[in-house]
User: What shape does this take?
Amino acid sequence: MKYLHTMIRVTDPAKTIAFFELLGLKEARRMENEKGRFTLIFLSAPGDEDAEVELTHNWDPEAYDEGRNFGHLAYRVDDIYETCQRLMDAGVTINRPPRDGHMAFVRTPDNISIELLQDGVLDPAEPWASMPNTGKW
Assistant: This one.
């Protein structure tokens, strides 16, 4: 058995791709299906191309309320503080800041929770250590 990918439905592929690119993922391939009226976009982290996220964009508008029922995707990062700062600088809300230097949560434009986990150990640091949660995560 081999893990292939995780699929999430998205309403705005460009916004969602931009979000995942901020995390460091790159688009690997794309498939358009005229008959089925959908597009599949596969993204992966450099060096981990076998583990993909599949973005499914249905061309006919659909409302995806509270993607939280999906659960979350998790990514290990080299520097959680730098990653969270880069996301904040791009306008992404840090829903659960990395107060412990280990774990943070953000959400995609379609409200899918993304868990960020520090590779190794970082000491708690400000402003993260005293930053409150924002919204749901």
Notes: Residues 3 and 51 are 7 Å apart (CA to CA). The mean pLDDT is 91. The chain is about 15% helix and 35% strand. The first helix runs from residue 13 to 23.
